[in-house]
Fold this sequence. Notes:
Layout: H1 2-24, E1 40-48, E2 51-59, H2 60-64, H3 73-86, H4 89-92, E3 101-109, H5 119-130, E4 140-149, E5 157-159, H6 161-166, E6 172-179, E7 182-189, E8 194-196
Parallel strand pairs: 1-6
Antiparallel strand pairs: 1-2, 2-4, 3-4, 5-8, 6-7
Amino acid sequence: MRRLLLALPFALLPLAVAHAVDEHDHDHEHGSLGAHEHGVGRLNAALDGQTLELELESPAMNLVGFEHAATSDADKAKVAAARAQLEKPLALFNLPAAAGCKVVSQELESPLFGDKPDADDHDDEEANKDGHEHHHDHSEIHAHYQFSCATPGALKTLDLANIFNTFPATQKVQVQLISASGQQGTEVTSKAPALKF
Length: 197
């Protein structure tokens, strides 16, 4: 019995370590490099009763092909196109129609979207406070969605195929999933884009 209990924390260790690197090394210029890996996104998914929450974090490189501020018309068009795709989460996450999910709220955040015009002033002093300030050399895009699903029992799988199709530079997504059947950490790829709730 003891051996089983010990096995679980180690199974989750790689994700925990990646998370620790992400949170604690922001005061080093390149400290978050381990967690900020091109081609790799992160998705936290939680299903609680009829509420489904999805939180997608990805290097901007995966979604728009660059990480600098968009100055040219072509770059601005790419950012606008990516944002438009992210604003259609029901299509992006391919939620089954039978589940009857409706978007309750969605938030998109990225330096590329111009969400934080004052980030330059506070970058140095705030970086150490909360560990979540964005460095300009590592632009991330964060998308947070909340859905209300009339028939959550119909959510048997989460299919991320459309994320890989829409953003082909994304090669894999590290998923942390919490549902009635417990917590699981897994990786999905374009070849195997679905996971079971």
